[in-house]
From TrEMBL:
The keyword Disulfide bond is annotated on this UniProt entry: no
Family: Belongs to the enoyl-CoA hydratase/isomerase family.
Gene3D superfamilies for the chain: 2-enoyl-CoA Hydratase, Chain A, domain 1, Lyase 2-enoyl-coa Hydratase, Chain A, domain 2
Name of the molecule in the record: enoyl-CoA hydratase
UniProt catalytic activity: a (3S)-3-hydroxyacyl-CoA = a (2E)-enoyl-CoA + H2O; a 4-saturated-(3S)-3-hydroxyacyl-CoA = a (3E)-enoyl-CoA + H2O
Gene Ontology terms for molecular function: enoyl-CoA hydratase activity
PROSITE patterns the record matches: ENOYL_COA_HYDRATASE
Catalytic class of the enzyme: lyase
Key word Disulfide bond present: no
Organism whose genome encodes this protein: Mesorhizobium zhangyense
Amino acid sequence: MAYETIVVETRGKVGLITLNRPKALNALNTQVLTELLAASQAFEENPRIGAIVVTGSEKAFAAGADIKEMQSKSYIDAYMEDFFSGWEAFTRIRKPVIAAVSGYALGGGCELAMMCDFIIAGDNAKFGQPEITLGVMPGMGGSQRLTRFVGKSKAMDMCLTGRMMDAAEAERSGLVSRVVPAGELLEEALKAATKVADFSLPAVMMAKEAVNRSYETTLSEGLRFERRLFHSMFALDDQKEGMAAFAEKRTANFKNR
Ligand code: HXC
């Protein structure tokens, strides 16, 4: 597929997707969604890829869903096409996905970052759910995922006032896992992704699945789910290799099997 709104590269075992609509601050239109899904699915199916990084430009990760594309939609258009439901497919990617956020991550941009497994932010990052200023509300998960990340009080503040959160506040409140100097963002994100990609892929994928399950179930069911996955790991060659390497004081060489 020839991509027009994203740039797709591989860096070793890492698949790198860069949103690339600079004139619209990477606003997320239908074409971006289609291309992002195709690229991430291709990485999902590529056995040489162990992790994915999604990033934008220095000025904007993404300034939201494309307001100009959706402004003339009617209720019936939105309902019949189940507008925004296509993004759910992105959250079904089973390999780890890291968001590297520089500049604006607003509305759908913040929501896209939150669909990733964790967010590394440049110190210039700004997060927000400004939909209220447009006469609407978050529609790609903002009211649900942001609340789980930062708690009710801050999520209400963000969704009701539309204010932005800077990188330091985002880290303090648990929205991002780490903040790095903006100029080092991509390098740091690729470093983290490479580290993950060098581990056992099935172990990484099961860990991702278990953490995500914690949002969908009770603690006792989640603990049981975790334990069953953990038990299954003793069927992996990588478990034998990882533990043998520790005992023999050498670096593990995971075969992803
Ligand atoms: C379409 C957008 C856009 C967007 C920016 N642009 N954001 N186009 N959709 N979300 C376009 C501008 O129209 C402009 O195009 C160009 O990008 C540069 O933007 P400027 O505003 O000139 O840049 P700047 O002054 O630096 O301001 C940056 C900004 C501002 C603060 C990020 O662009 C902004 O407020 N954008 C909208 C943010 C927002 O409300 N996002 C939420 C969208 S709704 P031209 O052609 O004029 O040069 C959403 C979820 C919807 O995401 C869910 C509810 C259904």
